[in-house]
Task: inverse folding
């Protein structure tokens, strides 16, 4: 290796990785193999493992479902599907041929006669592929079949004989506390807890697994990881997708069951739990369970105070014509559905570490962008020392875990702006996975299949964990059933969500942290030609604000303290007589002239619809102007065209 290259690697601290052993030999039986999960995620995951040399040679997959198919037809179908769903840059035909030749299929129902036949077939494959009697059962079917399949497998005698027998159970694990308790009872009637692997695919994400690595392999943050230094923590899972063709399933679920009770509570547990004694699966799962058991179980009054829900409505074009349906117009969704597609909540963890630290969670479908982030906001330092300086207010330090689609970690802090007077600017340090690691994109299911084959349950949920999560979620479900939402739909498709969500956090004197991307800014005329430095200064300075319809944002004659970027919605500019002289829409901005020219506001500006806005405060505006004089020219040019300013 040339010296310069080795220096670069050394600066990243990259050492030779120990090679991972392949998965353990087994026959993997997938129930529901004719379905969506198998073709879209499980088979691509097996293919990725095979490509990376992580799948045992002694491996066979037996697909099982009621649809009639021969082995050949199944292989042909999988071969067609893998071309669509593989996640690698290039497709390796040789690896695939080898893998698919070890795929088999058996059609049958979920009864004893069929399971006896299944037993004979698995025994046959086990000896043909020399898999030592190890069997991995994957339940890729609807949850109502989980209990009956466990029962039938037991009756057919699958527990007996040499080799390990393990069961991977898909989500959702129950639909409420009662059904989860019952399901645990059914599943554990004949199988041991250490044979049951409950999937939560968020735990398969590298960025989620890294939460543990980050917390426990670095010395500097753990001493700060508590109520004394952390002001609040925010978990955000925004989805741009709507419910699509899954309306039937989703309408009986809603975002609380679909995302919060499982994926988000798992991330919460990783981020907030105590240090486990080791990386042993149960050491970690014990701490996660303790944490989830400490999440306060709300009274109905607390639910009313700390939780809001939303449902998306349609998106219309400028003429008011619906261009994309609202939730109630989606396929298989009742026209009066009260199911929530958005929720925001403030939770409390009643333990020594976190007592009094608000933990905010929010998630929704059909929002303005896809993005999952965890924001740890530290307490602000005292302002007193900066009184009498040009620093109007201090910002909190933030540690941001970008889970997806951008993957990275960012630390935000203040730095002195170069110059003779004391001025501060928020800046960041950023680690990006793409810059530090070279790895193929995975589906998230590889590590699940791989670690289950090795009997490592770290990334799977345990019965008591699932129950603890349901216990915290149940009061929300009960309250919502008792008080059906009257104001649905209450957020527009493509927006930031319902205004109530921003009110919820603003009541606490805080605000949601929104990740602003340079892609977003580049859609705005004012920022289109901006270089990276300019855009990054703007991104750091913008703060989000949601405003309801018919509210006055700017009053004529007032001193301008901020300018606005309209991410979504419509505002009207009014003349003295109250006549609308201009309507501004998504991507427009306003309020800049008074800042630039230090004149009073020239017109009133009022929201016509609910609006999602980014605010740029005057001090930040001036600082950016100072560094980028061309920004002033762009602002002036647009203002001249718009308001005939001389
Ligand atoms: P599908 O709707 O595609 O169904 C899976 C299989 O179930 C079908 O292939 C079908 O096979 C079988 N099935 C359908 N109806 C019946 C019935 N009445 N009796 C017996 N079998 C039936 O589901 P998915 O593959 O999407 O999901 C499987 C599991 O994975 C579910 O628990 C889901 O919640 C979970 N999951 C799915 C994800 C995804 O992205 N798809 C993501 C996360 C979890 P056949 O008719 O041939 O028997
Ligand atoms: C699934 C939910 O569990 O997770 C879906 O059922 C959701 O509704 C999906 O879209 C999100 O997963 P990801 O990996 O895209 O964030």
Result:
């Amino acid at each position: 290796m040339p010296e310069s290259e080795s220096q670069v690697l050394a600066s990243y601290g990259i050492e030779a990785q120990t090679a991972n052993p392949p998965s353990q030999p087994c026959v993997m039986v997938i129930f529901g193999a004719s379905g969506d999960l198998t073709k879209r995620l499980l088979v691509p995951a097996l293919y990725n493992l095979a490509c990376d040399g992580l799948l045992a040679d002694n491996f066979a997959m037996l697909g099982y479902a009621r649809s009639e198919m021969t082995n050949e037809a199944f292989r042909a179908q999988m071969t067609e599907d893998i071309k669509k769903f593989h996640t690698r840059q290039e497709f390796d035909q040789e690896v695939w041929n080898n893998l698919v030749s070890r795929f088999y299929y058996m059609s049958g129902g979920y009864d004893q006669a069929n399971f006896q036949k299944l037993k004979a077939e698995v025994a046959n494959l086990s000896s043909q592929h020399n898999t030592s009697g190890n069997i991995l059962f994957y339940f890729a079917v609807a949850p109502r079949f989980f209990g009956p399949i466990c029962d039938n497998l037991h009756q057919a005698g699958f527990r007996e004989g040499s080799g390990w027998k393990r069961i991977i159970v898909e989500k959702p694990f129950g639909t409420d506390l009662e059904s989860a308790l019952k399901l645990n009872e059914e599943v554990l009637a004949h199988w041991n807890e250490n044979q049951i692997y409950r999937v939560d695919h968020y735990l398969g994400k590298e960025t989620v697994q890294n939460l543990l690595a980050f917390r426990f392999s670095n010395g500097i943050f753990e001493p700060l990881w508590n109520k004394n230094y952390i002001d609040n923590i925010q978990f955000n899972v925004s989805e741009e997708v709507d419910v699509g063709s899954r309306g039937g399933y989703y309408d009986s679920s809603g975002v609380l069951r679909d995302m919060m009770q499982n994926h988000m509570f798992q991330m919460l547990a990783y981020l907030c739990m105590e240090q486990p004694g080791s990386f042993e699966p149960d050491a970690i799962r014990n701490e996660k369970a303790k944490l989830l058991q400490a999440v306060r179980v709300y009274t109905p009054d607390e639910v009313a105070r700390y939780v809001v829900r939303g449902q998306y409505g349609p998106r219309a074009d400028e003429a008011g014509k619906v261009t994309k349906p609202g939730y109630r117009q989606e396929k298989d969704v009742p026209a009066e559905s009260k199911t929530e597609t958005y929720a925001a909540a403030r939770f409390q963890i009643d333990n020594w570490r976190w007592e009094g630290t608000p933990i905010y969670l929010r998630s929704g479908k059909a929002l303005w962008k896809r993005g999952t982030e965890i924001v740890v906001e530290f307490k602000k330092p005292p302002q007193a020392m900066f009184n009498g300086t040009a620093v109007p207010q201090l910002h909190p330090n933030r540690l941001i875990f970008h889970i997806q689609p951008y993957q990275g970690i960012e630390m935000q802090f203040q730095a002195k702006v170069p110059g003779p007077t004391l001025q501060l600017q928020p800046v960041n340090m950023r680690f990006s996975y793409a810059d530090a690691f070279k790895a193929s994109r995975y589906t998230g299911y590889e590590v699940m299949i791989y670690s289950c084959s090795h009997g490592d349950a770290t990334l799977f949920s345990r019965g008591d964990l699932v129950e603890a999560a349901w216990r915290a979620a149940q009061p929300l479900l009960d309250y919502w059933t008792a008080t059906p939402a009257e104001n649905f739909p209450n957020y527009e498709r493509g927006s930031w969500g319902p205004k109530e969500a921003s009110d919820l956090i603003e009541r606490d004197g805080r605000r949601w942290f929104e990740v602003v991307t340079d892609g977003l800014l580049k859609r705005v005329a004012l920022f289109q030609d901006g270089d990276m430095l300019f855009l990054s200064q703007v991104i750091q300075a913008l703060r989000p604000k949601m405003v309801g319809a018919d509210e006055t944002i700017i009053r004529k004659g007032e001193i301008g303290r901020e300018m606005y970027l309209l991410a979504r919605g419509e505002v009207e500019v009014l003349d003295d007589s109250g006549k609308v002289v201009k309507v501004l829409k998504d991507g427009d901005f306003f309020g800049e002239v008074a800042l630039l020219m230090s004149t009073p506001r020239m017109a009133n500006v009022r929201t016509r619809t609910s609006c999602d806005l980014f605010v740029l405060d005057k001090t930040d505006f001036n600082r950016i102007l100072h560094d980028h004089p061309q920004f002033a020219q762009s602002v002036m040019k647009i203002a001249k065209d718009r308001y005939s300013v001389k």
Q: What stands out?
A: The pocket of NDP (ligand 1) is lined by residues 32, 34-37, 40, 65-67, 140-143, 170-172 (CB under 6 Å). The first strand starts at residue 26 and ends at 31. The CA atoms of residues 180 and 378 lie 36 Å apart. Residues 463-482 form the longest helix (20 residues).
